[in-house]
Structures are given as structure tokens and as C-alpha cells.
Amino acid sequence: MSRRISSEFKVHVTFTETDQYSLHINCGGKQTTIKGVTFEEDQDPGGGATFVPRRTIWGTSSTGDYWDSYSYDTDYITNNVSILRMNNSELYTSARFSTLSLTYYARCFRNGNYTVKLHFSEITIRGNRSFRSVGRRIFDIYIQEKLVWKDFEIKKEAHGVDKELIKESKTVEVKNKTLEIRFHWSGKGTTASPKEGTYGPLISAISIEPEFKPPHGSKSKVPIVVGASVLFLIFLIFGILWWKGCLDSKISREKALRGLDLQTGFFTFKQIKAATNNFDPINKIGEGGFGSVYKGILLDGTIIAVKQLSSKSKQGNREFVNEIGMISGLQHPNLVRLYGCCIESNQLLLVYEYMENNSLARALFVPEESPLKLDWPTRQKICIGIARGLAFLHEESALKIVHRDIKTTNILLDRDLNSKISDFGLAKLDEEENTHISTRVAGTIGYMAPEYALWGYLTYKADVYSFGVVTLEIVAGKNNMKYRPNENFVCLVDWALVLQQKGELLELVDPRLGSDVSEEEAIRMIKVAILCINAAPALRPTMSAVVSMLEGRTAVHELFTDPSTYGDELRLTALTNQFDHNSSQNPGETQRLIPSSSDAPWIGSSATTTSSDLYKKSKYLR
Questions:
Q1: pLDDT single digits (tens) 531-562
Q2: Do 234 and 128 share a domain, yes or no?
Q3: Which of 101, 138, 193, 457 could be cross-linked to 188 through a Cys-Cys bond (beta carbons 3.0 to 4.6 Å apart)?
Q4: Domain membership of residue 154 as a residue range
């Protein structure tokens, strides 16, 4: 069969005079460019017995028909049915399939050895634990008429659906200037899940590259001349637009985003407009660190939160870049999940998972707006969840990250009241060879470690300190900077240290909890928090040790801190004066400390001086 079709291929195709050395095809999709490599479009309709020659150097053939199903389109191209969260998602939004046999022919290739990469993603069978997930697509793969992979199953090889899978075959020999790749269904797997006719081979993209260095001057000079002319015209047009001042904003954004390796899905601005009903004010659920946040619903029913960057904020651009770079490579149950982003025209948007129960701050400190009643087991679960998320950032992630702005407004709660860390706009990578980083101070007063607030001395122990403050707030149900039992105390932390000296730690427990509190667990949590807020960074535990202590797997080594030693210049002067001044200027708002110098490094920048982070505007969430 393959030799007969290959003969037809010779008849129908007009060959080039120049040897070819590479080929990239976006199977079933439109032309797209990935990291400088252009994948050709492949959108011609397929069929039960179809041969399609393409341009001058490649073509396809398919055989077989779905006799048991009339639901498939005749083009034999399928599109994804859910969000794709992988590198180069443009290659996997569509795929070409066949019932029995699908063959790609590459002609006019110089004889030699090549590397063939086959890109797969199972975008039809689901993985949602329903009957739609039991389907199995199994087929064989032949290259140059040799069986390379038998009983190949995308879902099994990729460990799930909607995941990128690249199979590579090296030293593929081309002898007669032809390279043939064939996908063949041999009757294995299922045929009716998620619906009748779901079987047969499926391929998302194909890449062919030489394993030798192509000779210089082997290609025609015409493309070079044409390319140079087009490039000149582009530069001319951009030069005129720049001269008129039309490109300043766009160029700065593109420059800011250059170099990012985005491991996220891409959304079009049209998709996001539809999801948010054209950014309807009714769907506005808050103001983030540098723009508005909207609730949206995708076509597949997924609820999302869209963070929209203000077009006038340069600091916002920088934080946007930082947040993408930080979150895109992180996956953990206690970190807010980034679905993707939109970088289109004058729009910079982040698309997150939607958190039904808003922020921890709202649940603890604004009971009149929150329907949530956080009992003791829930508070303990939230606290341990935050600790696990930080342990992942500090010790388990491939990128070691210091968050720098851990506070209750940056802890979001999902439907099941699981805690998730959000807002990575101030996060900083921890270079492992450095024991600390000296940086301009950026964060929120009341949560910053003393060594960081006073001297800009940043280590992951700064996050440990902030976690200790948040833990005290969870236990007490009180805001650290707003709670002052009397004039002798600056904040909740002061009060906790005094109660430790008196042996009255249970006085910290939120009276709203009543008697439904485990005293043993409460004392353990408070003691861990006090360990974390020790003025000496070296005496604070690691977050993995914190998780172990909170879960009761290791004992808490109690350290007594003299409250008078805690009352240093930061406590007695800077904090008090700053707090009193900010309270009079902005009642009801928690202040963020930012550099006053306009030339401060971007890592410490902040787009706002308030703590109105993601999901502040709660009236839309009831």
C-alpha cells in the first residue's frame, strides 16, 4: 500500500531542485512559529481514502472510515476540548487522526541520517474519572517502514490527557530522498469512549532535523533577498511609528516579557472578553497589586479569575513579568494555579483558577462580609497548608523562591477551604550559592522580618517570620497591625510574646471559637509561631521543620524571647510612627513599604501602597 501511494506522490508532486534538510508540520493546525521554528499548516480535509500532496516536498495519505459512527466531521481533524497547560500549546490545540492508517511523506531530502520528533497530546479522551476517561487509543508507529513503537498509547506514555509528549527517533536513514512516517491502528484499544468512533492514530506535530551540518549555499538565495526586503520594510514602518510616539508602551512591554520561557497556556483576548462578558463590572471581584481582577467562565464551564494589568503602570509590567516567571513553573496543591496568560495588542492578562472563598484576611477579619465560620480544625488545616506551600517554595521546588509578601490577604481559600499562596509579584529567586540577598525593601509592614525591614537582608527565613505572624493571626482571629490591647503594645506579636512570658498562651485563642478548641493543638501552633518570629533569623526553623511540628511528628523546642529585646528601633519608632501616620491617612488599610527612590530596582517595586490584593471586593462573591 505505502509503495503504491508513494508512486502516486511522485506523479502529483513537483519537486524542488534544492535538497531539503528539515521539515516541521503542525498536524491538523494552522501555521505557527515556536522558538523561531515555523511549523507548516496542515488543514486540508482528510477522508476514508485520501491522498493530499502539499506544496513541493511533503504530503499525506489516510485510509479507513468510521463505519460505526456518523458524528465525526469529514476533515479528520480534532480540536482540544479543554484548557491546555503545557509548553508550546499552539501545537496541541488541534491534531490529525485517521481510523486505520495515516502516513506522512517527506520528499527531496538529501540522503543521510535525520532525527524525527513526533509530538502527541491526547485531547479527545478525558481524564475526569467518568466514563469518558476509560477510553484507550492504541496504535503502531512506523518510520521508513520499520516498526518503531508498537501498541503506543498517548495517555499512558504522557501520564494523563492534555499533556505534551514528544517521541524521538534518532539516526533515521534517508536513502532515496524520501522519509515516510506511518501511524497504523491494528484493532486494539477502545472504540466508543468518550463516544463512538474514538480510536485510531492521532498526531499533533512532526519535526524532522538533520544529524549532519547542511552545506553552505545549498538553498536558494531568493528567500534571503525577499526576507531582507520585508525586514527592511518592517523596520521602516516601526521607525515611523516610534518617531510618532506610538510604540513606547508596546515596546516596553515586549522588552519586559522578552526571554521568558512561559510554561503556561495562551489565551486570546477574544476568549477572555467572552469569558468575562467584555469585562462587565458585575464580574469585577477585586483590585490586585497592579490592576483589576475579574471572574470569568470558559466555554467548557471552567471558572477563572482574570488579573488585568493597568496599561499605565510600569511597575505593574515588571510585577506581571515576575509573576508569570515565578508561577508558570510551579505546581503545588497549596499554590494558586496559573492557567495561562494573554499577551495581545495592548493587553497583559493572567488567568488563574478561581478561588470561591476569597482571602483568609476576609474570613478572619471581616466577619460581617464573610459567611465563613472558620472552626478550629479548619484553621489548623489552613495553617498547615500555608506551611506546606512555603516548604515547597523554599526547599522542594526546582526554583528556590523567597515570596517576600506572605500575609493573610495573599492567602486564598478554595471551595473546600484549602489554603493557597498567591500574588508572586514581589517574589525573588534564591540563588543557592548565596546565603542571603541584599535588596531594596518591599513588602507589607507588620509581616516583614526585622533584618529585612531594617537592613534589606533577605533569606528564606524572612518568609518564616511572616508565616509566624500569619499563624498568630489565624489563632487569634486578629490583625497584627490593628490589634493593640493597650498603649503598651504595638501589635499582636508584642502581646503574644508577653503572654508567653506569663505562661498564658491560651489567652491568644479567638474567643469566637468557644470551647471547640484542642488546647494541646492551640498551644503547639502558638509555640511554633513564636519560634518563627524570633528576632534572630538563625534561630527560626525551616518550613519543612514547621510542617513536621504542626503535624505533631516532632516536638516543639520552645525558645523564650524577652519582649524588651524585641522592642528595638523598628518596634518603638519606625513601626509606631509609620502605623500612626498611615492610620490617619488611610484608615482601614494595611500599608506596604516600598522604596521612595524612583530608581529602585524592579524586584522591590510595588504598584500600590494598599493591601487590596486579589479578591478584595467581596460583595460580588456572596
A1: 999 999 999 999 999 999 999 999 998 776 65
A2: no
A3: 138
A4: 2-210
